[in-house]
Design goal:
about 60 residues; mainly beta; four-stranded antiparallel sheet
């Protein structure tokens, strides 16, 4: 399992977890703040997003990749 940080154009920030999954697992994902589409897959990996910051909020901690 791998993690990364994704910043949506609206300003929301997400921790993204990549996990191997069968090719038939795919669903549409949208930003919780602006409803913009987020990638649900990257090759053989499914992507899971965990919002850690809303637009305009300050983070109480520093995100690292």
């Amino acid at each position: 399992m791998e993690t990364a940080v994704y910043c949506c154009p609206c300003g929301a920030q997400y921790r993204v977890v990549r996990q191997e999954a069968p090719p038939d697992q795919h669903k549409k994902i949208a930003c919780l703040s602006c409803n913009d589409s987020l990638e649900g897959r990257e090759g053989k990996f499914v992507l899971k997003y965990f919002r850690v910051k809303r637009p305009g909020e300050e983070l109480p901690f520093k995100l690292t990749h």
